Structure to design on (174 residues):
């Protein structure tokens, strides 16, 4: 009975989603998602390009120039402390540079601003794996499972990272 209700609910949601997006697709609509949903839409690009520190910081992230990213994103969040996306990217740069203490602080800031920031939850889970804390990484995966009605990229990516971690650390996964 439960499976049938779940299937019916899922079908209804998918149908509603398809019907609600059809006019936007036909009209050429679309764009990126907010709330740390991933993807860079026109609004995100405009926001990034409007600030030289944010643009340079994001360019440095894409080029994996972590020290430059950290410097420019720190300058940006000093002026725009309520930008959860910027805190998440700053924390990401710290994590990739090996500075987990500052990475955890940045993810905490991002999630204080936006508790449903899916990218921050995914990256925080990755940071926990980097620190060897499988239980906390799995807690982030459970949070993403609740935030993503249907499986989302962040959930799928973190789940795969956890699977690989367990395969590489069989003792830790017991």
């Amino acid at each position: 009975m439960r499976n049938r209700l779940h299937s019916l609910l899922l079908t209804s949601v998918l149908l509603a989603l398809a019907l609600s997006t059809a006019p936007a697709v036909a009209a050429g609509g679309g764009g990126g998602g907010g709330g740390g949903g991933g993807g860079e839409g026109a609004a995100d690009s405009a926001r990034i390009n409007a600030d030289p520190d944010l643009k340079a910081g994001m360019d440095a992230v894409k080029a994996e120039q972590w020290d430059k990213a950290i410097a420019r994103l720190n300058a940006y969040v000093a002026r725009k402390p309520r930008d959860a996306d910027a805190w998440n990217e700053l924390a990401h740069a710290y994590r990739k540079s090996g500075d987990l203490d500052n990475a955890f602080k940045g993810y905490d800031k991002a999630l204080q601003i936006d508790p449903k920031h899916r990218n921050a939850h995914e990256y925080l889970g990755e940071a926990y794996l980097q620190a060897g804390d499988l239980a906390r990484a799995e807690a982030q995966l459970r949070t993403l499972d609740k935030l993503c009605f249907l499986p989302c990229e962040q959930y799928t990516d973190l789940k795969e990272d956890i699977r690989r971690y367990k395969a590489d650390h069989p003792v830790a996964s017991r």
